[in-house]
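so my prof wants the structure for this chain in the C-alpha cells format not the other one, which i didnt know existed until like an hour ago. anyway here's the sequence
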Amino acid sequence: MLLPRPGSIRVDDDQFLITESTRICAPPDLRCVAEWLRAALHPATGFPLPIEMSDGSAPAIALSVDERVPSQAYRIVSGARGVSVTGGDAAGAFYGCQSLLQLLPAGVYRRARADGARWSVPGVEIDDSPAFTWRGVMLDVARHFMPKHDLLRFIDLIAMHKFNVLHLHLTDDQGWRVQIRRYPRLTDVGGWRSESQLGAGPESSTDGRPHGGYYTQDDIREIVTYAGARFVTVLPEIELPGHARSAIAAYPELGVSGSQLDVSTRWGIERNVLNVEDSTVQFFRNVFDEIVELFPGKVIGLGGDECPKDQWRADPRTQQLMRERGLATEDDLQAWFVGRIGAHLQSHGRRSFGWDELLDGPLPRDAVIGSWRGMAGAVSAARKGIDVVACPDDRVYLDYRQSELPDEPIPVAIPLILERVYGFDPVPAELTAQEATHVLGGQANIWTEHMDSARVVDYFAFPRLCAVAEALWSTGERDFGEFNDRLTRHLQRLDAIGVEYRPPGGPRPWQTRPGIAGRPMSPATRNAHIR
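here's what i got, hopefully its the right format
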C-alpha cells in the first residue's frame, strides 16, 4: 500500500471520507505542515480544508506532536470520526502527512479538481520511523543545468519518498551554477559552455549547442526555504581542487599554467586543476563565505575526488611550494589544500563533506565522507571513527544503465536493475555495531552528463529512486516481490504527477537515444576503472 514500507500497519473495514466540511486541526508549531497538507489536498479535491486550532467534535484531520514518539517518526490512526497524524516532531508529522496522501486514491496527486471522486481514507493504524537519519539524493546540476522550476518539482518528488537531504553538485569542469557576488565571472564565464559532448566514449561528437544557466542568490534562498518546508536540507558542493575547469576559465590565475581555458565541453576527468597558491586558497575561502550564508545546513561539500596530479608534478612552482610547506607527495598537497578549506568551514561552525579519496590523507576535522567507489570507503571511514554516507556506484549511481537491453539510452557502466538497487544496504556487514554507528545513512547519486532535461532525469531516477527510498527508510526484512507489488500501485501516483519513469518493460521509443554511443562495462571492467 505505502512506499516506502512503514514499520507496521493494521487495516480494518472502517473508513474516513474527506468532504467539503473536513477541517485540518493543528497546533501553532505544526501550522507549516498543515498548510502544506492543505495545499496538497486542495487541487484535486476542491475542498477548502480550513486550518483550525482544535479538532472539537466534528470529523477532521488532526495533526499533533508527542514527545514520546521518536524524532522523524509518526503514528496514523484513521476511522469514521477522522484521521490523527502524530509526529515525534514536525518532520515526523510531515512524513505522516505524506503517508496519508498515499492512503487516498492516486488522483489526489493531480493538480485539478476531479469531480465526482470519492476521497476515502481506509481505517488504519500505522507506526513508522526511519532506519537512517541521512536519506539523501545527489543531483548534478553542473553537467546539465536544471532550471529552478524543475528543481522545485524534484524536491517535491524526493520529499514524497521521505528523503531528507538534497546534495546539489553545483560546480564542475563543465559549468558553475551558483552566483558568487564577489566573483561575477564564475557565472558570467563559467556558467556556460559552447557545446556538449554527445555520448560517453572518447570519440563521441558534440552537439554544437551552447548550454548554461545558474542560480542567483535569491534563487538559492528560495530553493533552500522551499526544501526546508518539506524537511529537506540542501547540501551544496563546490568541487576542488580538481573538477574545477569552469572556475579556471573564469579566473585563469587559479590554474597551474595561468593560461586562458574554455569551460569544458567534454565529459571525463579533466587534467587542468587548481594551483595551490595561498591566493587560490583565499579565493575559495571567499567563495565559501558566501556559500555558508546561503545554505544553513551543518554540512558543506568540497569535493576532493578525481584530482589528477600531473600538472603539480611537472610544475616547478608547485614543487617549490611543496618543499616550503614540508609536503612529501602530491597527495599530501591535496590534503593540505582541502584541509585549509575544511578549517575555514569549521570556523563557520560547519562540517566538510568530501568523497572517499580524502581518506588517502589527513582529513578536515569532523569531515563526513561520501563512499562512492563501492563500500570500501565506508568500511575504512567507519573503522577510523569517521562519519560516512554510503553511495556506492555499483548500487546507487542512477546514471548507470538500467538493463542489458540494447535500446537503453546512452548506456553507461554496469546495469543497475531495480532489484539490485533495492538490495542496497548502507551498513557494510563487516563492521562492528560500534563502527556501524558512524554510517549516517546513504544516498543515490544522479550524474547528469547524459541527462539534458528534467524528463530524462525522471527516466533515470524513477523507479530506482523508489527502491533507494525504501532501503534508507524501512526496517525489517526486505522482499523484492512484495515491494514490486506495492510499486505497481505507486507508479499510478507517479503517473498522476507526470513523472516520466522507465516502464518495467524497458524504455518507450522517445526515451531511447539511437545512434548515440554509451560506455557499457562488465563488472570486471568497472572494478578496474573505479580503482
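also thought this was worth mentioning. The chain has a mean pLDDT of 96.
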